[in-house]
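Record copied across here:
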Amino acid sequence: MPKKIPIRIRSFRIKAQKNRNSFRRWLTKLEKQTPRGIDKTIATVEKEVWQETDCLTCANCCKTMTPTFSTRDIKRIAAYLQMPVADFKKKWLQQERGGDRDWINKKEPCQFLNLKDNKCNIYEVRPADCAEFPHLSKKFKDYSHVHKQNVELCPATFRLVEKMKGLMAAKN
């Protein structure tokens, strides 16, 4: 089994910025002409990516983004924290402006992130959006727009796209 590689966030940001446009163009091209079997290929590559990626040396998602909290998430987390739902919302959340007006964190980094060890203080009951992040195992066609965003925020997404791009270039 490959050794997990600690993520050097500064180096990652530089690399991501450098590759951002080419990766986004490549993902857009795949959206328009999605190769047969891409989800199966992604599933295989995703396993490799997770064997290499040490999220606890990064936590960039928790430091720079906010999950969307569903009603179910809010109830579950409030109960875990032994708080009434209204108090939980008032203390930690705000509604997004415009659009769907989803519930999101009031601040970044996430209030539940322990900055000393990059662990989540509510990991067992974290929002579904966090548990599923970075959404690599979702159907590519439905989540390619999310990958375009995450490619510069998440080293795992970056690595998946980098590997996929290399694999598909080798096939051609």
Observations:
- The radius of gyration is 17 Å.
